Amino acid sequence: MAQCVQSVQEFIQDSFVPLVAALCSEEAERLTRKNNLGFSELVKPFCRLTSEVHMRDPNNQLHIIKNLKIAVNNIITHSPQPGGIRKLLNDVVSVSQPAEGLVTNVITAGDYDLNISATTPWFEAYRESFLQSMPASDHEFLNHYVACMLVVSSSEPEPVEQFLKLSQEQHRIQHSSEYAYPKWFIPNTLKYYVLLHDVSAGEEQRADSVYEEMKQRYGTQGCYLLKINSRGSNRGADEQIPDPWSQYLQKNSIQNQESYDDGPYTVISNKNADHLISDGLDNDIQVDGLSNNFKAHPLQLDHLSDTSSSFDGTDYIRTTSSLHESKKTSSGTPHGACLTLTDHDRIRQFIQEFTFRGLLPHIEKTIRQLNDQLISRKGLSRSLFSATKKWFSGSKVPEKSINELKNTSGLLYPPEAPELQIRKMADLCFLVQHYELAYSCYHTAKKDFLNDQAMLYAAGALEMAAVSAFLQPGAPRPYPAHYMDTAIQTYRDICKNMVLAERCVLLSAEILKSQSKYSDAAALLIRLTSEDSDLRSALLLEQAAHCFINMKSPMVRKFAFHMILAGHRYSKAGQKKHALRCYCQAMQVYKGKGWSLAEDHINFTIGRQSFTLRQLDNAVSAFRHILINDSKQPAAQQGTFLREYLYVYKNVTQLSPDGPLPQLPLPYINNSATRVFFGHDRRPAEGEKQAATHISLDQEYDCESSHQWKELEEQVVAVVNKGVIPSNFQPTQYCLNSYSDNSKFPLAVVEEPVTVEVAFRNPLKIPLLLTDLSLLWKFQPKDFSAKHNGATKELACGNDMIGAEVIAEFLINSEETKLARLKLFPHQTGELHILGVVYNLGTIQGTVMIDGIDPSIGLQAGKFVYNGISVRGRQDLEIQGPRLNNTKEEKTSIKYGPDRRLDPIITEEMPLLEVFFINFPTGLLCGEIRKAYVEFVNVSKCPLTALKVVSKHPEFFTFGGNTGVLTPLNPSASENCSAYKTVVTDSTSVCTALMSSASSVNFGLGTGSQPEVIHVPLPDSVLLPGASIQLPMWLHGPDEEGVHEINFLFYYESIKKHSKMCHRVLRHTAVICTSRSLNVRATVCRSNALEDEGKGDNMLVFVDVENINTSEAGVKEFHIVQVSSNSKHWKLQKAVNRFEDKDYKLASRERGKLCFKAVRCKNSGENYTFADVVFGNEQIISSASPCADFFFRSLSSELKRTHAQSNIFQGAAKQSFDEAVRLIQKCSEVDLNIVVLWKAYVVEDSKQLILEGQHHIVLHTVGKEAFSFPQKQESPEMVLLKFFRPENTSLPTRPTPEQLSNLIKTSLHYPESFNHSFHQKSLCLVPVTLLLSNCSEADVDVIIDLRHKTTSPEALEIHGSFTWLGQTQYKLQLKSQEVYNLQLKACFVRTGVYNLGTHRVFAKLADQVTLFETSQQNSMPALIIINNI
Fold this sequence. Notes:
Layout: H1 8-15, E1 19-24, H2 26-33, H3 39-43, E2 53-56, E3 62-65, E4 71-74, H4 82-95, E5 104-109, E6 112-117, H5 121-132, E7 145-153, H6 159-175, E8 190-198, H7 204-218, E9 223-228, H8 246-249, H9 313-332, H10 341-377, H11 382-392, H12 402-407, H13 418-431, H14 435-451, H15 455-471, H16 481-494, H17 498-514, H18 518-527, H19 534-549, H20 556-572, H21 576-590, H22 596-612, H23 616-628, H24 635-655, E10 668-669, E11 675-678, E12 689-691, H25 703-720, E13 735-736, E14 747-749, E15 754-761, E16 768-788, E17 791-794, E18 802-804, E19 807-812, E20 817-826, E21 830-844, E22 866-876, H26 888-892, E23 905-907, E24 913-918, E25 923-925, E26 928-938, E27 944-950, E28 957-958, E29 982-984, E30 994-998, E31 1013-1015, E32 1022-1023, E33 1028-1036, E34 1042-1054, E35 1063-1075, E36 1078-1086, E37 1098-1107, E38 1115-1127, E39 1130-1135, E40 1145-1146, E41 1151-1160, E42 1168-1174, E43 1178-1180, H27 1187-1213, H28 1219-1227, E44 1229-1244, E45 1247-1261, E46 1266-1267, H29 1297-1301, E47 1304-1309, E48 1313-1316, E49 1324-1334, E50 1340-1345, H30 1353-1359, ...
Parallel strand pairs: 1-4, 1-7, 7-8, 8-9, 14-23, 25-35, 48-57
Antiparallel strand pairs: 2-3, 5-6, 10-15, 11-13, 11-15, 12-24, 15-20, 16-17, 16-19, 16-21, 18-20, 21-22, 21-23, 24-26, 26-33, 26-45, 27-31, 27-32, 27-34, 28-33, 29-43, 30-42, 34-35, 36-37, 36-46, 37-41, 38-40, 38-42, 38-44, 39-41, 44-45, 47-49, 49-53, 50-52, 50-55, 51-53, 54-57, 55-56
Helix pairs in contact: 4-5, 10-13, 13-14, 14-15, 15-16, 16-17, 17-18, 18-19, 19-20, 20-21, 21-22, 22-23, 22-24, 23-24
């Protein structure tokens, strides 16, 4: 139980006090009425004695009485009405509410920190009023009147006669059968005569004379002269006299409710009352239109029905209001206005005199008389007499069996029965605090009552015996709790008297609490809760909850559960404020612990009770909590919650219609998922026109792709700014989301929409309907173009600065996440801040589930039926930026950076480009050339310039070089027309190559430029507003098969320079699917031919072409129409293995080999020499667009790739080659590029198409095979991991044999057969010329060794043996590129076939020491045939 102001001893003593009746004459009542008080009210504050009192017990022992209190009440001649008592108790509890600054206990139990009210004054007020209003009963005498004061005014004509009349009236009330109420303790009631004298108006002398007469008549012990009203009613305003009556008058007792006409209580009788008091309100009260009938279990949420009331709720409300009005008047009206402090002392002295001289001697005498009677009548044979009187006393022997007696309340004793005399004596002793004697008497009476089976009497004796035992000083015996338990059970189950049972529980629980037996006290309190009285049950359950929380180990959940039950019963009893308080205290326990259903119930009830009490903000908050938690309620219940919330919310908004829009809890908004898009929506494709993909909200964010676009933009910006990216460069971001960099203010363009995508989620199982949905924004107009003294000029804001799109209806189905795209149209430059969304929240009708199917599923947007309630509110968009983690301070603390995606800066007007692709293919063969057209449209009001396009794959497309556009300009003229520039060839020129030259500068690939950044050739470099232009674009299918995504970034600027936005970009992603066509590989080797001797070098080029197409694209065959070369140093001269048939066809899986002779060309500076070997009737001019474009682009990307690889290699090795080795390596390098041009015949829809294409092979090294497509690197074999210490080993400087074989080129010139007559001459001498050619660019020392090294018998067998005549070793020095002829002689002794290639050649650079042997493995065998003639 909660803490009480009084101790348990004080509480019990004040609950059972001697009762004194007051009977006043009308004149006496009038005197007291001057002070707005009745006589009993006048003396009430002074009824507690301030000093100890002494009296003698029957054994003549002195007994001390401390802190004695008496109760003086007006005589009321009828018992209190049950309805009136119930009403009184209800009002007492209702009026007593927690004070504003009430001290709360903070109880920590486990994870819980609970704020609980330390005291419960409403319970104490209820308990006091309950005990005071208990009607007197026959089985006990505690609330019987012991004495009666007869009060007469001294101003009456005959005061003594008036006393006589009052005495007779009292006698009539006590002894006449006409009055059964009130009850009197003993027949000879003490009468005390009080003469009331008005000092300010009466004659004091007359009063004294009357008092003298009274003393003679009634004795000095039986009368008193009380002087009051020393001042007139108009006392000085400055004199402050204390008012001790106000605290007592607020606790009005039921007895004085009819003592004057304007009493504050209206008695309401209950026709259904079967016994003395019908405890509890059986009605359900409706206040402000919300039903509060909670007949079901308190944790069940579906309590929405109404039942009939047992009495009219309107009367109840009227009486409650009249109560409050009377409280106001009573508290506003001063009491004791005519009394001075001396009068206060006189009243206090009067009560003491009455108690000392009148009441206590009377009680002492009565106790002695009762004691003497009992001793004389029963003596020591008390127990025997009690046992036998049931058999021999005929007056009260029952005719019923014992079991039947137990089922009733037992026997009824006559007033003079000795058992009742014992009880009477016990009660008197108890009232004067003689607890030991009282316990003894109660104990004796208890045995007699039990023997007689008088259960009501026995229960009463048990109850008081237990209390007496507890109150005995020195605690000679423990508190007999089992006595109380038996008494409670008897009252409740046998006697059916809940009032007495309740008194027992209140007393026993307080005693148990004082002994810290909280668990027992709680069990006792809970046991008495029942359906017959909601108020009593609520109070007891609340006290039980306090018991649980005050235990040594607080039982927090039991506390909360019983608080909920108490709140439920308070609600049924109409105590809305107390119900709300209980639920709020319990909420502390259930909140955030995962008890979602319990939390929902509590919040729902708090919301309803708060609404009933007009605490609308609390109601909204409670309903909001139900909706924002992930509710596990069924759909119907959620619908109820939502409707209640909307209803309450509407009432709140009606109170302050002009106030700010409050926050709505539904639907949820995922703030971090908010996306912002700047610009117009993308136009769809129209026929053959395909719009640039650009960027839209429908595209998913790809981090890698985003990084690529940023790199492309940086690349083109660097080119525009001469290789340097400006410091204020800000990458263009059209779509901002949680992954983009939102640390800077984004830029938007005036007159272009800003689209905000908001992610709504409906957590409920019912659909939500949002209407009039739009963005909430704040705008600060600024003129960025006009600068005044370095500051931006601010403009006045008008309503037409920003246009906002409103979505009329937006339906979110149950548990659905739905995106809403809301637009703003800025018409003025400045700073825009998007704050949130504003909308009407409502539900739609017809959401009840039918056959398990929710009809709301799949509802489409359109016209919906409202259920009549919809409220307007807002939700803010508050996006938390990324967590900062750069500095030490940021790492050690939690700090977040800004997220400015909702704060765009609206800049001046900029041009807006739209790009359309015409006849753009989706599928190509590898290497295929296709011509398409690009249309550029300026849809803004500003001209655009500096149009460029940048791509990571520049080899994929070209707009043509600067050599002039020689192909058709528009798409319609391009049908069946070659994409190449062609010339009809002469039939005589089929063997030799046709020459032309071109510079890479003409194709945008000058030195130092970025090949990825391509200038778009606009006429006059400007596209005017509204203008459009179509340009041809050639496409080249990538060499690898598969699906390719190729990114184009179009860059453009405004003619007018802006401070905020320098350029704009447009993105396009082309998806091309390539299928296999030709596989081309080529090798180059040095020629040993004699014909160009002395004229420089020549080489053989072998080209392998294989058709690897699997006919999935409908390709029938490929025709090789031309092979071209381009290089600065080499050119193709002619085809060696030329077919007779001009056509060079390759069907599926066929392979052909072509051989070409290549010669060095004259040095043409930076120009490339193009040589075309034509196999058909038309020459494709390879030095013109688009053939040269794609060649130069592929060459550029190839060089970039090889350069990157060599960088990696050099970086890893960190060692440069020796200069000598570098020179040797250079000998084996060639710079020859081969272009194979082809045509493919495709059958598609029974129509033959001709496709064209080209493949490029870059030949770097002599003897090394090159491919037209990138080779896949084979993954290295997995080996065991070895740990070793790296040694500083430099790379070997010795060149490879292949490189050495290319340093000095040798060839033997000799006759293939030689005839000699061995008969005539035995030795045959053959002249042989050894041709030495220095391939390097440095002087070379050469040693030729002619001595035989081949000693193996196999070699001798195969080739035979011969001898070189003359010098066996020659030393020569060859200049750069020098060719030297050395004349030798070979000697043969017999016929046969001989290999002359037995010589060895050693070479070294002239300025080096080390000799290297040139490898002869690549040389052809030099076979000579010797014939005998």
